[in-house]
Specification:
306 residues; Rossmann fold; 6-phosphogluconate dehydrogenase C-terminal fold; 6-stranded parallel β-sheet; 53% helix
Length: 306
């Protein structure tokens, strides 16, 4: 890879930020790695695990002279972090994030940097919205590993204000981590992710909540006999609650639209069960199976893993 990051600052040293640092370290593509985290214990753990070289609770110190700053915090804290760090960034520093919501984050961060640099014109802003579509239900730097992003997709959401060299650096970074990089408009990203990621997570959380609200004797039996299908479907309900609270609040329009569509489909399914329409039920299930099988096959072909 034709880049080297002299100083990388990771704000929010958890699974995603920590795994990216590990991936770049493994290929000697980064010099000093500085971590920022609200938890001193988490920063000490990150140093102990050699994910970062040092931790800092001083954001100004952490980003000073950094070549690349990766903001890997919950989405509602990304813009405040950029607001705080903006006066201390080096002129050529590139800032990117890993949030699952892009439109509100990109708009807010660009507004902050434009205010910080009132003379900026054209494609000169060095913020690149990013979203690596990878992860696990367990969070924390102790779960970070260098190959997390191998075979994954990362979406970047540049705007007409985005500096081309900043976009290129962020693209190279994610490709070095093993991810296939695509670009997309931020608003379209939010619609796509509402359907493919946000809706399934909300479904998993709600299934567990529904079963948890059953009468006590029934609830005990339900969870006692929960089999592999239940565990597989609800695995993502172990994801970080604060992260998903923020995603719902920041992407509410797209999420509400896909929830309304899902609710209509669920009502139609209930109607077929209620009327005993076996042919209609078979048609729904067969179509779903066919669609899922085709999508998985297409994804394997596109990644060259078939």
């Amino acid at each position: 890879m034709s880049f080297f990051i002299k100083k990388l600052t990771v704000i929010g040293v958890g699974l995603i930020g920590g795994s990216l640092a590990r991936a770049l370290r493994a290929q000697d593509l980064v010099g000093e790695v500085v971590g920022v985290n609200r938890s001193r214990a988490a920063m000490e753990k990150a140093v102990q695990l050699q994910v970062i070289d040092r931790g800092s609770s001083d954001l100004a110190d952490a980003v000073r002279d950094a070549s690349l700053v990766v903001v890997a915090t919950p989405v509602r804290s990304i813009a405040p972090m950029v607001q705080h760090m903006a006066p201390f960034l080096a002129p050529n520093a590139v800032v990117t994030d890993v949030g699952s919501v892009k439109q509100s984050v990109v708009q807010a961060c660009e507004a902050i940097l434009l205010k910080q640099n009132p003379g900026a014109t054209g494609a000169s802003l060095r913020f690149v919205g990013g979203h690596p579509i990878a992860g696990r239900e367990h969070v924390g730097v102790e779960h970070a590993f260098a190959t997390l992003f191998e075979g994954s997709r990362t979406i970047l959401t540049p705007t007409p204000h985005t500096a081309s060299d900043a976009l290129e650096l962020v693209r190279l970074v994610w490709e070095a981590a093993g991810s296939h990089v695509e670009t997309m408009a931020a608003d379209y990203h939010d619609q796509v992710l509402a359907a493919t990621s946000h809706l399934p997570h909300l479904m998993a959380y709600n299934v567990v909540n529904t079963l948890s609200d059953l009468e006590e004797h029934m609830r005990a039996e339900v969870f006692r006999y929960a089999a592999g299908g239940f565990r597989d479907f609800t695995r993502i309900a172990s994801s970080d609650p604060s992260m998903w609270r923020d995603i719902c609040l920041e992407n509410r329009s797209a999420i509400l639209a896909i929830l309304a569509r899902f609710r209509d489909d669920l009502d139609r399914l209930a109607a077929q069960i209620d009327t005993g329409n076996g042919d209609a039920l078979y048609g729904i299930f067969a179509r779903s199976k066919s669609t899922r099988d085709r999508i998985l096959a297409d994804n394997k072909r596109s990644r060259g893993t078939e």
